[in-house]
Amino acid sequence: MNKALVKLSVGLAVLCFGATQAMANAPKGTPSVTQELVAPPFVPKHDQVAKGGPKLVKVRLVVEEKLMKADANASYWALTFNGSVPAPLIIAHEGDWVELTLVNPKSNSMAHNLDFHAATGKLGGALLDKVAPGEEVVLTWKALKPGVFVYHCAPGGTMIPFHTISGMNGAVMILPRKGLTDADGKPWHYDRAYYIGEQDLYLPKDKNGKFKKYAQPLEGMADMLETAKSLVPSHVVFNGTAGALTGDNALKGKVGERVLFIHSQANRDSRPHLIGGHADLVWTGGSFSDTPATGYETWFVPGGSAVAAGYKFEQPGLYVYLSHNLIEAVLLGAAAHMMIEGDWNNDIMEQTKAPGPISK
Ligand SMILES: [Cu+2]
């Protein structure tokens, strides 16, 4: 190689290096932490109040296209990040950077990417993080807005609704550095947090009214999009499957504990309600920059968003956390159980007379 060529290639290398640095913009020396993501309804280990300065929070999502049950009679090709519907909750603090490694193994059939509603620019990163089967990509973005936010796959055109209604969505929680505060601005800490991802499914049926089966995801795409145009879901489920969070899989808690519920719906409106309880605090629209609303019976999750609600449990026993469109909750699947341990308080509720013959 002559001297001029060497100079040119060194120059190009510097340019390329410069471009990489511009995208991965956490300043040199920023401490990094690897966040171990977990399957919902659980949330990764995290500090509610940030310790020290901003960090680079590293997360890894691996695409898995897999068959899942919508209920006992229907299965669907779920397009997932890390194998769950919804995808895992990612947690950082305002001012942190999130470094996503997105891996699309060769065994998959399609390209996938991520649009982070919490991120700023390039369609939420979707223009920078698209990967074909056999590729991986790293995207770094700064958490500018505190709140809870949806992320979802958005590879372009009809693939956007197809991937999103096939389960390819999750949520990010960006906590204020000092943690959450109540309506009076006082610190509000939670004892537990649960992430409820609500999924609307539009599964095609055959002439006999049975749910169709497909050998791989793309085979059912045209049918599913046609069914979806009706805007009438065949299923509305929590955690990917009707009954995934009921019975033995009920969410758990104790009397006196404060529980934070993070509820996301990437495509459709929802209206969470806790039967037998309330929301003490609701961060309407998912924004932690705003003062939370207080004492709600039912709150609203606009399609394409996540919302956080906090409640201190006052009584033990069964609660049902559902979408209070009761048709969707009972007939289509959008219900979870919450089992609370503790001592009953007769001051709050008592059966003052057991059922018996009418006395007058
Ligand atoms: Cu996708």
CATH overall fold name of the largest domain: Immunoglobulin-like
Provide mean pLDDT, rounded.
94
Number of separate domains:
2
Tell the overall outline: flat
Structural class from helices and strands? mainly beta
Using the 3D structure, state the CATH architecture of the largest domain: Sandwich
Strand content: 25-35%
DSSP summary: helix tally = 4
End-to-end gap:
107 Å
| Distinct compounds present | copper (II) ion
Cα Rg: 23 Å
Number of strand elements: 19
Cross-sheet strand order for the largest sheet:
11-10-13-17-15-16
Order of helices and strands: HEEEEEEEEHEEHEEEEEEEEHE
Q: Secondary-structure blueprint of this entry?
A:
Elements: H1 3-23, E1 32-34, E2 56-71, E3 74-81, E4 89-93, E5 97-104, E6 115-116, E7 135-142, E8 147-152, H2 159-164, E9 169-175, E10 192-201, H3 221-228, E11 235-238, E12 251-254, E13 258-265, E14 272-275, E15 279-283, E16 293-296, E17 305-312, E18 317-323, H4 326-332, E19 335-341
Residues 79, 112, 153, 155, 163, 168 line the site of copper (II) ion (CU).
How do you describe this structure in short?
The protein has about 350 residues and is mostly beta strands.
How does this structure look, described?
Helices cover 12% and strands 34% of the residues. It is mainly beta and 360 residues long. Strands 11-10-13-17-15-16 form a 6-stranded mixed sheet. The longest helix has 21 residues, at 3-23. The protein is flat. The termini are far apart. Residues 1-23 have low confidence and may be disordered. The structure holds copper (II) ion (CU). Copper (II) ion binds at residues 79, 112, 153, 155, 163, 168. Copper (II) ion (CU) is lined by residues 79, 112, 153, 155, 163, 168.
